[in-house]
Amino acid sequence: MEKTGAQVILEVLLEQGVNRVFGYPGGTVLNIYDALYEYSDRITHYLSAHEQGAAHAADGYARASGKTGVVIATSGPGATNIVTGIATAYMDSIPVVAITGNVATSLLGRDTFQEIDITGVTMPITKHNFIVKDINDLAPTLREAFRIANTGRKGPVLVDVTKDVTAAKIDFTPKIPAEIPEIKTNDYALESAIPAIKDSKSPMLYIGGGVISSDASQELIKFAEKLDIPVASSMMGLGGFPATHPLYVGLIGMHGVYEANRAAHDCDLLIVAGARFSDRVAGDRLKFAPHAKVVHIDIDPAEMDKNVVSQYHIRGDLKNVLQKLTDKLPKAEHKEWIETINSWKRPIPEQDSTGYVSPKAIIETLDRLTNGDCIIATDVGQHQLWAAQYFKYTFPRQLITSGGLGTMGFGLGASIGAKVACPDKKVVLITGDGSFHMNLNELTTLASYNLPVVVLLFDNRVLGMVRQWQTVFYGKRYSQTDPHRKTDFPKLADAFGINSLSIKKPEDIEPTLKKALEMNAPVLVDCSIAPDESVLPMIPPGGSVKDTIDKMNI
Amino acid sequence: MAEKLLLSALVNNHAGVLLRVAGLFSRRGFNISSLTVCETENPKFSRMTIVSEAEPNTFRQIEQQLLKLEDVIKVIRLKDEKYVSSELLLVKVRAENKDRPAVLQTISKYGARVKDIGHLTITSELTGIPSIIDEFVKELEAHTIIELTRSGVTALESGDISINDDID
């Protein structure tokens, strides 16, 4: 059937099972938007306030659903506005296909109005990218983009399409999506690691986002239970292993629990499952797990020895690797080791929140009121770490957070994407006033689509995380972190057509959260947090567990 | 201690591939001593020969990162003298009448070829392994080198094996 390039784009999206896209129209994507008008019964387009919001929404949609997120933006500023969103997805290995328009092929390279070399710009932050200048290449390129985004270690792919290609016509035949090639397990490496696992007296599992992208939660639980191995998780791994499980030790890393960091330090075997020894986990990569043999399981062979040298490199899909290991290894018990870890348990230090509300109390109440059954999206900063520390994540894709890039402003767009992906789940955005100020324009999107996201704004009137570092490392010289902003958040919500509530005293927490959760409409909850409330414990950058800070000198 | 790493990569022959490879080296902090690239016998592919200086424990990392690029089909490490390599040098040396015989003598000693003779200079060409070229250049420094250009090393595995062996 003869189709225009714009129609071909939408046909390929349908082929790939895409029925939700996020984006913003503009000059070079006019043909695509004209086709979207025609296809609106099959593809729902969510209009953001700013392209960055649309990119984060596509990312949030992918994280919550496990499907590929799609974002559409126009050339020039539209394309550059999605750059932070693409980089965020790249750092966390999230499958996103970004489609940008570009000026007509004949105008390329002439600094035409709204022309930008977006493939050049996004080269280091995409798995791969393309520019399509010939209608014959359009459908195959888009199919290839979906294949690349989902093969091996996932990630974003950008397809830049010139405007003339979207108008050109071609005979189009739909195709069944190519099967995503399985990544074969390196069985030789797997076999060689078996004796080390068998012999270990004090083994430890350190899991990461790979557990979630590989859909390996069940296999991980079986493996950990059969081998009786305690589990610590990076922020990206939260929800990959239920926090309520007796083998769960907790969050590892800079703001992880002491016992998790201590166990990683003292164990004789560290099994790293879909994690990459980020500097936020292995502060001093040369001194990380100094007594352990390290078994590194990852789908990406380039992760092996990148940060921390490991003795066993098992390349493969985590789901398959863990299944095989569980089958091949006999049941084991590590009672004494687990007791030792338990003896290291230190509660997260309590802080004085007098006159304000405690973030811990809010998050724990939220956990209780929702029975732990909601999706939490976050922005980046102190609230993000509190959300990681105090909520008990029990299922994969429950926490939507920018782990690698640490993108302030990610949360609102991401929560929109998560809600679109999971309309039947409660979605709560935990954000801070710093992050929220960055992209709060997307409140208009929440309102337009009446998406019942609960926005919990941890409002301490300061840029808390940076300020905390200034407290610890810069002699309390609070440079540009006490901005004295006058923003009236309830009024702001009102202006956007969104309900608002506030939590000013501890006794407000429960009734207000209840009300917000039952509202079934977008709502902003302004929570008064003390400006000196800190994220503790804390291992200073470059440090190890012995450098843990438990108390702030405020 | 940094050592020399010699890689040969089969890559897709289309626009932007060189930029992707060079960008990868730059953002990961890997060094490129030289890089040569041209289309192969199969117009679908180009072949790159990359010389890098790196700590030996990062050699694997460099190969693996290269392989992650969609346009990189295959990477082989050339080592232990199991390869043949060559580089091209063009060098312009001051050779006024009195110096001319000495310059020509050096050129012929290394089997280099005279490509151009000017009023005051001789431009010669030498192909060979980099160490021979280094020696030749060093010897020419006794005269005045006006300018020179080197292609960077290009290499193939020795024996009957080929990078294409398991490529469809």
Task: Provide a descriptive summary of the structure in words.
The complex is a heterodimer of chains A (554) and B (168). Chain A has 554 residues and is of the alpha/beta class. Chain A folds into three domains: 170 residues, Thiamin diphosphate (ThDP)-binding fold, Pyr/PP domains (Rossmann fold, 3-Layer(aba) Sandwich); 157 residues, 3-Layer(aba) Sandwich (Rossmann fold), CATH 3.40.50.1220; 177 residues, Thiamin diphosphate (ThDP)-binding fold, Pyr/PP domains (Rossmann fold). Helix content of chain A is 37%, strand content 17%. In chain A, the strands form four sheets. Chain A has a six-stranded parallel beta sheet, with helices on both faces. A six-stranded parallel beta sheet of chain A has the order 11-10-9-12-13-14, sandwiched between helices. In chain A, helix 16 links the parallel strand 15 and strand 16. In chain A, helix 3 runs parallel beside helix 5, helix 3 packs across helix 17 and helix 15 packs across helix 16. Chain A starts with a strand and ends in a 26-residue tail after the last strand. Chain B has 168 residues and is of the alpha+beta class. Helix content of chain B is 25%, strand content 41%. Chain B contains four helices and nine strands, in the order E-H-E-E-H-E-E-H-E-E-H-E-E. The chains are: A alpha/beta (554), B alpha+beta (168). Chains A and B meet through loops of A and helix 1 and helix 2 of B.
